[in-house]
Amino acid sequence: MDNNQITDWELIQLSNRDSKNFKYIVERYQVRIFRYLKRMAYFSNEDIEDMVQEVFIKVYHSMNDFESTDKFSSLIYRIAHNHLVDRIRRSNSRVKENFFEDEDALMLVRSEINLEADLASQEAVEKIKLAISRLPENYREALVLKFLEEKTIEEIVDILRKPQGTVATLIRRGREMLKNELLKAGIFA
Amino acid sequence: MKDLSNKIIQSIEDQAVRPVPRWQYAAKKILFWIMSVLLVFFSALALALAVYLIQSIDWRVYAMFGYGNMLVFILNAFPYAFIFLLAVFLISAYYFYRKTPKGHKINVSTLVLLLVFSGLGAASMLHILGINREAYFQLARMPFYHQMMFTKEREWSHPDRGLLWGEVVSVSRNDFSLRDMSGKNWKVAYDNSTFFEDRIYSDQGQNVKIIGQRNGIDNFQAKKVQKWDGVMNCNGHRNMMRGGNAGGMMGPRGMMNWK
Q1: Is residue A170 part of a domain?
Q2: What is the pLDDT of residue B73?
Q3: pLDDT above 70 for A3
């Protein structure tokens, strides 16, 4: 079966008939969810893979909550977001510094400033990662969804289940905070 | 990362996970909508009841209740319980609306304004239609209601302070019998100086409020006798006011003329 030709809605119908078809939904979204979870908190790759599994089992359990007019990816991200919040709360783990990938950190900062080539030294990258990890979780998540996951405001509204104004504020304030952190770190003059 | 699809399918089969049926989600969504609407209705009812209670307070005689000044009286008479219920219902309506499928999309301030104005609109309708009044009668039938709440029934049940209300049981030349809220019978005396707001009949069910003076265990001298708004008898039942001639229902003196 050519997975790419079938819509999410059709895949859900197929998965309802036979759970084995759910495999195609997993194949379509697992990398994105893995990356999203990894960007949001520091966990080992094995832990993230376990979380991805748990997320998809929950997605399978509640896939009928999806309406054909909505975006299925928003439902999956929402479940992943809730799962992550729950997991962080349960493990009582604090977000560690430097858990961002170098490329992600630079990409997030590029949305804010035009990095000079020489600024993108390893030392600068470490400072940027530190600045990002210092952002409060809700602001960081809004920035990650907007600039790394490339979600629209409407999608972020559905993922975080927050009003549009609140999401816009989270992104705007998150950017301001990030700028300030970068200023403090001497990255951004 | 590894391809987890086969592992996930295996876990789903091992754990016998089944998708929640679509109808359950539909039922949940409907339930949240119904709860939102119901809670707005209840908040409107609480507000309308509070308005009714404030409206029904006899402000002219507040000093006789022994509160001294108006502020103390207002603080005592304020319908805290209904305002509290109004807040609880509105907050709950907010919570349930947020749980509806698109409920998260609306801004906090917009939703609060929407709920407040819906509540105000519904409360106005309940007030215009007199449903708050009906609801009050039902509540007033509940045991201990008058002990817990500031009600005019309770406040007019202070014969020592010169305030008495009740149901007229019989009428004679110089006095009439009255049964108060607790079921106690009073002999209420009147004379030429007694002011009557309207006419009084001896047939059961007519309620009056009296300003006067207590003269013993169950005697009361009336100075002013007024209608009890024609809404309740001592047992909290509706009382249909009898107007004009109540044929065959006169007391020993017949129909008294109120001054």
Answers
A1: yes
A2: 77
A3: no
Q: Are residues A22 and A72 in the same domain?
A: yes
A124 has a chain B CB within 8 A of its CB:
no
In a domain, B8, yes or no: no
- Residues A23, A46, single domain; the answer is yes
Residue at A83 is within a domain: yes
Query: How far separated are the first and last CA of chain B, in Å rounded?
Result: 96
Provide the CATH number for the domain around residue B255: 2.40.50
Residues B33 and B135 occupy one common structural domain: yes
Range of the domain at B51: 22-148
Interface test with B, best of A9, A64, A153, A154 (most B CBs within 10 A): A64
* Tokens describing residue B87: 């807040």
Least confident residue range of B4-13, B60-69, B231-240: B231-240
B14 is a domain residue: no
ipTM of the complex: 0.79
* Model confidence at B238: pLDDT above 70: no
Each residue's pLDDT tens digit, B133-155: 889 888 877 777 777 777 778 77
Tokens 């807040």 map to which residue? B87
Q: Which of B130, B123, B149 is nearest to B231 (CA)?
A: B130
pLDDT tens, position by position, B108-127:
999 999 999 999 999 999 99
Q: Which of B2, B4, B18 to mutate to test the interface with A (most CBs of A within 10 A)?
A: B4
Q: Containing domain of residue A137, as a range?
A: 102-184
Check CB contact under 8 Å for A65 and B106.
no
The domain tally of chain B equals 2
Buried b (16+ CB within 10 A) or exposed e, B122-152: bbeebbeeebbbebbeebbeeeebbeebbbb
Q: Who among A60, A162, A163 is closest to B17 (CB)?
A: A60
> Cα B242–B174–B229 angle (5° rounding)?
30
